[in-house]
């Protein structure tokens, strides 16, 4: 449904339909809206964002032609490749209709997720400038190129004996930290990585990252890239937007947090895609129970392979933890991490979760599952030194020790202090000072017609 707007400069956003991509794209939209642009979000029916959370935007759903079988397969790369093939015509048709209906409300630019690379071709065909948004870390982007290179040289898949060996030129990444994925075939992985990695006609790249975290990776990418790169993260701080959650947030956990002591709670969430088995669920449960720390645990529906929601929490667990544990299906994560009662985050290390935790000075326990999560876990524990990684199979004794290291021991306090004195203040000061230049620059460049 189209909304009347006073603004004459319209930006069209095309997010990739997964939570970790929708959030930064809509945060960017919120920021640009606050600078006077009108924002139109074109999106797939699959994982459609809720327009009522963003009444200031205009939303256009387009058919994506995904079959129920494709969606339930969980093969994310195949789904993303299908979306790139299926959405081109309907996106172009939607844009043409929008332009015909409101010729005075010119489309200044299309901003698309790098994974939705078909948007760039549509923009070029309609003669509209386009900009790419990249929603993972620069370091992960570089490591993904290393994966493609190693594969082309027949070094991947690597034998177990190499798993702890350093990847040449990629200190401190080991082979096991490379951003590979077991969610789909390597063929699909590489097709997607190559297409999303190429800048064809985009005028610029907006990157949700922070200079002080990724200085050397940014310097490297800037050398390789022909177009300007704006590192403007963390987007959730620049535009503390309304929620863009696909699942309903259970805000009752905030009332529970209110009753807990300062920095006593470990918050546990493995994000919007990662899943675990029944055995891992049981080890997590007993590790948390035995740690004796209060915990807030997100168990996302569908995240336990083959089971309904927490139907198989081990017998006796709920009774053992009583009021000390709070379990929800989906949490208002940014609010949770900013709450004074939260003292640690056990995370899968998705890029948004990593930035959200770093921004609040919350140290992390890292259990990456696939892709970029493995790179971030290594950086959190070895480079930024604000977390510990659980390296082995999930096991209750190790979990209990990690929780206590983070929440009780001096080590954890050290990380929290380092985090408080170091990273978050750097992140926040770069957001409010140095990065101001870059992120304030974008609307100016768009308005003044610098792009393209
Ligand atoms: N998130 C949330 N509530 C939850 C769990 C996650 O709002 O209970 C949000 C979180 O704040 C983050 C996003 O979902 O912005 C997850 O993105 P991330 O890149 O961390 O991981 P992904 O889900 O893409 O693996």
From TrEMBL:
GO function terms (MF aspect): quercetin 3-O-glucosyltransferase activity; quercetin 7-O-glucosyltransferase activity
Highest taxon of source: Eukaryota
Keywords in alphabetical order: Glycosyltransferase, Transferase
Family label: Belongs to the UDP-glycosyltransferase family.
Protein name per its UniProtKB record: UDP-Glycosyltransferase superfamily protein
Positions spanned in the full protein: 1 to 452 of 687
């Amino acid at each position: 449904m189209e909304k009347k707007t006073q603004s004459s400069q319209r930006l069209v956003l095309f997010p990739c339909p997964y939570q970790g991509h929708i959030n930064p794209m809509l945060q960017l939209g919120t920021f640009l809206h606050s600078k006077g642009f009108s924002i139109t979000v074109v999106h797939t029916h699959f994982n459609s964002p809720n327009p009522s959370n963003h009444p200031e935007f205009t939303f256009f759903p387009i058919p994506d032609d995904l079959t129920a079988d494709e969606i339930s397969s969980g093969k994310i790369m195949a789904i993303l490749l299908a979306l790139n093939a299926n959405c081109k015509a309907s996106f172009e048709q939607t844009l043409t209709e929008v332009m015909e209906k409101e010729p005075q409300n010119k489309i200044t630019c299309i901003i698309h997720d790098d994974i939705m690379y078909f948007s760039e071709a549509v923009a070029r065909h309609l003669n509209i400038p386009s900009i790419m948004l990249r929603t993972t870390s620069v370091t992960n982007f570089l490591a993904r190129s290393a994966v493609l290179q190693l594969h082309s040289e027949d070094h991947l898949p690597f034998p177990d004996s190499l798993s702890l060996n350093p990847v040449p030129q990629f200190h401190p990444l080991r082979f096991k930290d490379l951003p590979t994925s077991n969610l789909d075939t390597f063929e699909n992985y590489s097709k997607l990585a190559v297409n999303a990695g190429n800048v064809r006609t985009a005028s610029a790249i907006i990157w949700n990252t922070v200079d002080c975290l990724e200085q050397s990776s940014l310097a490297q990418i800037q050398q390789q890239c022909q177009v300007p790169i704006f590192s403007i993260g963390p987007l959730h701080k620049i535009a503390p937007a309304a929620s863009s959650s696909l699942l309903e947030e259970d805000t009752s956990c905030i009332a529970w947090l209110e009753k807990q002591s300062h920095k006593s709670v470990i918050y546990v969430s493995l994000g919007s895609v990662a899943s675990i088995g029944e055995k891992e669920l049981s080890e997590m449960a007993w590790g948390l129970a035995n740690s004796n720390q209060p915990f807030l645990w997100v168990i996302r529906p569908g995240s336990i392979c083959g089971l309904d929601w927490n139907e198989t929490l081990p017998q006796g667990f709920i009774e053992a933890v009583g009021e000390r544990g709070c379990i929800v299906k989906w949490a208002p994560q940014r609010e949770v991490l900013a709450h004074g009662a939260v003292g640690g985050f056990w995370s899968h290390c998705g890029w948004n979760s990593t930035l959200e935790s770093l921004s609040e000075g919350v140290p992390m326990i890292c259990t990456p599952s696939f892709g970029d999560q493995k790179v971030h876990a290594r950086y959190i524990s070895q480079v930024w030194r604000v977390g510990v990684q659980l390296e082995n199979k999930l096991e209750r004794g190790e979990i209990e020790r990690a929780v206590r290291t983070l929440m009780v021991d001096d080590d954890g306090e050290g990380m929290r202090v380092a985090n408080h004195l170091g990273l978050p203040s750097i992140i926040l000061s770069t957001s409010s000072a140095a990065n101001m230049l870059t992120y304030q620059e974008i609307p100016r460049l768009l308005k003044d017609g610098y792009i393209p």
